[in-house]
Write a structure and sequence with these properties.
Layout lengths: L1 E4 L1 E3 L5 E2 L4 H9 L10 E2 L1 E4 L8 E2 L9 H7 L6 H6 L6 E8 L6 E2 L3 H10 L12 E5 L3 E7 L2 H10 L1 H7 L1 H9 L4 H16 L3 H20 L9 H10 L12 E6 L4 E4 L5 E13 L5 E2 L9 H7 L11 E2 L2 E2 L6 E4 L7 E7 L5 E4 L6 E7 L2 E4 L7 E3 L4 E4 L5 E5 L5 E7 L3
Antiparallel strand pairs: 1-6, 1-23, 2-5, 3-4, 5-7, 7-13, 8-14, 9-12, 9-13, 10-11, 10-13, 12-15, 16-17, 17-18, 18-25, 19-24, 20-23, 20-25, 21-22, 21-24
Helix pairs in contact: 5-6, 6-9, 7-8, 8-11, 9-10
């Protein structure tokens, strides 16, 4: 095991300065780090992705980055992981601090990723899929998956500007296929595609009318919830004139409490809106975007690839399970082989705790608490505090001597094949 200094991404949508959980963790882990007051601190990348390979914080180790270390000592991944993922760490672990909405997007499956990468390498930088999971650290808001049809029909009825973009014919068709899942999925695709392909002048005019109407209704003290008014105005203030503002009528609005998670499989439409989260994903950077963004938009690919399966917001919350062998561990184990996340919460009464070995390299992030970590293979003890990031090799157990009065709260990413 050894500590890491991790890459920070200063994307424009990130929370600024000390408001950012990313910035707070960086300062916690390294008191000499400098956080600039006006600068966004959007993402902390904990892993070996070439765009943000973590630095090893131990000058007795010859390799300077985690990627180099893994290339020299691939056995640290664990034999199954090493063979399955061709000597690469299969996941990227992150913290996100979101201040303004990220684009409406979906991630391709392996097959589509390979095809997009071959055709448009400038927009799709690798050939891997990118399933991902977000676990809320603070109250976390996002859009995820298509709403139940009844809710979409409700908005088509109450929001004439939205109906104008979808068109009466497609809206009536959606009403008519209630109860037939296959047909519903086809018509939902038709409705969404119609809206996304609207001429710019048409949708900008409708959006301006909608924003004006909702603003006036709000000022008159009327309830604008039937038009999803608050969220609409917030997104419009961030991305004026963007078609993505209308996506709130198609997609579930999610509010996660700390510790709650959502899993975003291939082709699942989503957008993060506000808050701080832990994120874990397959090691890829492939994103197909279609709104709430100044970046490259690929509407046709997105509309073709999406999973048009309506479901309730509550069904999108990904359950965590108690680890059978450790009462302090909750498992977030998604239906993909690339990663699993564990939340380790050690109560204040426990002062000695062993992080159990797993047959996979893992990365541990300390959210709260202080401890000294020892392991048989390590060159020396490591001091853990809020913001410490630790790389642990496969089958290595780590003994913690906990010194804080309030216990420990940590997240661990690994690959349980």
């Amino acid at each position: 095991m050894f500590p890491l200094t991790c890459a920070v991404q200063n994307y424009a949508w990130g929370k600024v300065g000390q408001d950012s959980e990313v910035a707070k963790l960086v300062i916690g882990g390294d008191p000499l780090a400098v956080v600039e007051a006006g600068r966004p601190y959007a993402e902390l990348w904990m892993g070996a992705h070439p765009k943000g390979d973590a630095q090893i914080k131990d000058n007795r180790i010859a390799q300077t980055t985690l990627g180099q270390w893994i290339a020299h000592f691939p056995a640290c991944l664990g034999s199954k992981v090493k063979d399955t993922f061709h000597g690469q760490l299969p996941f990227l672990f992150k913290v996100l601090s979101v201040n303004t909405a990220l684009s409406i997007q979906a991630h391709p499956n392996r097959e589509l990723a390979a095809r997009l990468h071959a055709q448009f390498p400038e927009h799709y930088p690798d050939n891997n899929h990118k399933p991902e999971m977000a676990i809320a650290l603070t109250c976390f808001q996002g859009l995820c998956g298509f709403r139940p049809v009844e809710e979409i029909l409700g908005f088509l009825k109450c929001v004439p500007e939205f109906r104008a973009l979808v068109g009466n014919e497609a809206a009536d068709e959606l009403q008519g296929c209630m109860g037939n899942a296959v047909q519903t999925s086809q018509v939902l695709k038709k409705c969404f595609t119609r809206m996304m392909n609207c001429e710019k002048k048409v949708f900008v005019d409708q959006l301006n009318m909608l924003v004006k109407r909702v603003t006036e209704e709000g000022a008159a003290g009327k309830d604008t919830s039937s038009s999803n008014g608050d969220l609409l105005l917030r997104l419009h203030s961030q991305y004026p004139g963007d078609i993505g503002c209308f996506s709130i009528y198609f997609l579930n609005y999610m509010v996660l409490d700390p510790g709650q998670a959502m899993f975003l499989g291939a082709n699942e439409p989503h957008a993060y809106i506000y808050g701080d989260c832990i994120e874990c994903m397959a090691c890829s950077d492939n994103t197909v975007r279609a709104g709430l963004t100044p970046k490259y938009i690929d509407v046709n690919t997105l509309c073709e690839m999406l999973s048009y399966t309506p479901a309730s917001a509550s069904s999108k919350i990904f359950p965590c399970e108690q680890d059978a062998s450790d009462p302090f561990v909750s498992l977030y184990d998604p239906p993909v082989p690339d990663f699993t996340v564990m939340r380790i919460q050690v109560p204040a009464s426990v002062k000695q705790y062993t992080v159990a070995p797993v047959d996979s390299a893992s990365i541990i992030l300390v959210i709260e608490g202080d401890a000294t970590a020892t392991s048989a293979a390590a060159l020396s003890d490591v001091t853990l505090r809020r913001g410490t990031v630790l790389f642990v090799s496969a089958n290595e157990s780590v003994a913690l001597h906990i010194t804080s009065q309030s216990g420990m709260n940590m997240f661990r990413a690994c690959c349980l094949l």
